[in-house]
Design goal:
Number of helices: 10
Bound molecules: L-homoserine
Strand content: 25-35%
Largest sheet: 7 strands, mixed
Shape: globular
Number of strands: 11
Structural class: alpha+beta
Order of helices and strands: EEEHEHHHEEEHHHHHEEHEE
């Protein structure tokens, strides 16, 4: 096999309470990428459609992740990458992670899987570092593993896959403004109070327990963020109204997707997730801000080859 076409899922990082440690992959939102073996020991980005992004390997997240892969690999050749973007950069649903993780996943497949998933996450994190100045793993881990993932530790990197309850659906709305992850990290405080820490790690534990036992109400009670959301939500027009209306519409919980501006909600069943999508849309129609809205199952496979 010399060439592979892959689906690269969008991802929701943080999932409210798990800043930089929790994430999930979406089934019906994502990019596509074609990766081909070449003889020269280099990474070449040959084409990008859908968005204007750099073709220069060193300035492109897929290029940088690919170089990290090549550096550790015994393979004497290189790869050519074609990227078809559907996820907008700066939307908060893991645009850079989709590209960097899909590149290294496809390369690994083309070489008969010399690297583990954790090693692939490490390479893809170099792309995140280029995009946001911080090598966070909470988008690339679910893209590569699928489902929900927990980054239990960064040093050493320890990724824990978490099961997804069968009827869990995500609704994501992207108000058409761009927030750069690097900028929305700069406004965060570096210290937290013990009182907020107690609430936050209670919720992380609760969410993980709820996902393991398919306890939808526990999942809902745990989707609370006492540390990041109060600061970042100020950057997102209509955030409080969206949150109030989706909870009234029956969502289990709601929060900022990654570093925003997208807002996500989790619901039990597709029917409620669709009602939630309509109620989110109403808020932005009233404000007069353009938006994209998606309803998706959780993607259990992560990145996958497509024909
Ligand atoms: N955990 C990262 C952040 C995710 O919130 O800054 C960015 O998508």
């Amino acid at each position: 096999m010399n060439k592979l076409k892959v689906f690269c899922p969008a991802t929701i990082a943080n999932v409210s309470c798990g800043f930089d440690v929790l994430g999930l992959a979406l089934e019906s939102v994502g990019d596509e990428m074609v990766v081909k073996k070449i003889d020269e020991p280099t990474i070449r980005i040959s084409k990008i459609t859908g968005q204007t992004l750099p073709l220069d390997t060193h300035k492109n997240v897929a290029g940088v992740a690919g170089l990290a892969f090549l550096e550790k690999s015994d393979y004497a050749g290189g790869f050519e990458i074609e990227i078809h973007k559907k996820i907008k950069p700066g939307s908060g649903i893991g645009s850079s992670a989709a590209s960097s993780s899909a590149a290294v996943w496809a390369m690994n497949q083309l070489l008969n899987q010399p690297f583990t998933k954790t090693e692939l996450v490490q390479f893809a994190m170099q792309g995140e570092k280029l995009a946001s100045d911080v090598a966070h793993a909470d988008n690339v881990a679910p893209a590569i593993y699928g489902g929900f993932t927990l980054v239990r530790s960064y040093q050493p990197l320890d990724i824990v896959p978490i099961p997804t309850p069968e009827q869990l659906y995500a609704t994501v709305i992207h108000p058409q403004i761009e927030i750069k992850t690097a900028d929305s990290r700069k406004i965060l405080k570096t210290n937290i109070t013990l009182a907020n820490g107690i609430k936050q790690w209670g919720n992380v534990g609760g969410l993980i327990a709820g996902l393991f036992t398919s306890d939808y109400e526990l999942i809902g009670r745990s989707l609370e963020d006492h540390i990041i959301e109060p600061i970042r939500s100020i950057l997102i027009p209509g955030f409080d109204d969206v949150k109030k209306t989706v909870i009234k519409s029956g969502a289990l919980g709601c929060g900022i997707s990654g570093s925003g501006p997208s807002i996500f909600a989790l619901s039990k069943g597709e029917k409620i997730a669709q009602i939630v999508a309509k109620s989110m849309a109403t808020v932005y129609q009233t404000i007069g801000l353009d938006f994209d809205v998606h309803v998706s199952k959780i993607c259990s496979t992560g990145i996958k080859s497509i024909s």
